Amino acid sequence: MPKIFISHAVKDADVVVQPFIDLLVMGLKVDREEIYYTSGGDIPTGVNFPEHIKTNINSAELVIMMLTDNYMDSDFCLNEMGAAWANNQNIYPIVIPPASYKLLDRSALRGVTNVLTVNENDLLKLRDEMETKGLTGKIRSGEYNLRCKQFLDSIKKYMKQRQKEGPLTVPVGVFTKLQDQLKELETELEEKINECDEKESLIEELKKLKDQTSVKQVLRSHNTDEWDELQEFIDDAKSSLDQLDSMMVSLIFHYRYFSHNFKPEPIDGWSAIHKLAARKFIDQDENKITINDAHPLVRKADKALDLLSDALEGMSPEVTEQFEEEYGLEPDLSNIDVWQKVLRIRGMELSY
After folding, report:
1. pLDDT tens profile 114-168
2. CB–CB of 233/333 below 8 Å?
3. Are 168 and 73 in contact (CB under 8 A)?
4. Mean pLDDT of the region 244-254
5. Which helix (H) or strand (E) holds 251?
6. 4-165: CATH, from 3.40.50.10140, 3.40.50.2020, 3.30.160.100, 3.40.50.300
7. Are strands 282-285 and 288-291 parallel, antiparallel or unpaired?
8. Where are the beta strands (DSSP E) in the chain?
9. How far, in whole angstroms, is CA 234 from its chain's centroid?
10. What's the whole-model pTM score?
11. What is the rounded (10 degree) CA torsion for 177, 181, 187, 189?
């Protein structure tokens, strides 16, 4: 039975493992018959593949593991690792760059101290260990140094190849995040497809119509969501303004759309102004009136009016036309008629 078992990933056979075999055979004068290496044709034809590997790994005096990302991604390789570790055999894990020692954290070898990597010092350690076990022949330093250099050069080539290919795996957190993003994109795509289907349906309906009135009715039926949303903004604005008295609403309208100071009716308008000042809705300095934007009801009204203003400005042409037909007004909050007719505000006063 072979004394040395080389555990490796098939994908690494040519660039990583074969140069290492050459180092053992040519550089350390290890008898090739003493090396079990599945990619080298060491499994006879017709035998039970897993059973043959199991027999040889159990009988080997030394198990050398060529640890790469390919190795760690192979269930078969991990089974070999587990079998060697469980049998308490002499194992020599060699971490092949660009992989690092962190590779062992997700394996049965976590905590193992005799891990080697690919450099001249670690290769000397391996040579000394194999000499001690009587696994080498008569070593010639010149031949050994040449084979070491060839092996190290092959690893450099492997590193460049892996850098071009990129990582074979990604962290779980990154993978989960990408999955979530994919689901979001799939949902967004489905929504876009549904929108396109609705538009195509609209076009087909319009093709069947002859008069403009019917066309408008169809367009409105396809814009019900936008119209309903606009009505919600209108209702919210009205609800917030209904919590204020008519003078306060008048002040809000005035200072949103006019730059000069508000002057109430000379007869009893100032009485209402004084009451608002007493309730902290406004600040009054002689005849200058300033709205208290920090008052909760004022903040609420301002927010609702801002949202309504944005909705009016962003309406589609179809909904804009529907608004104008419904109210007989352009969708402009700086028009007091919109406040009185659309928001249904009563008793508003203009500056005197």
Report:
1. 788 888 888 888 888 888 888 888 888 888 889 999 999 999 988 888 777 765 5
2. no
3. yes
4. 91
5. helix 246-257
6. 3.40.50.10140
7. antiparallel
8. 4-7, 35-36, 62-67, 91-95, 116-117, 282-285, 288-291
9. 37
10. 0.47
11. -160
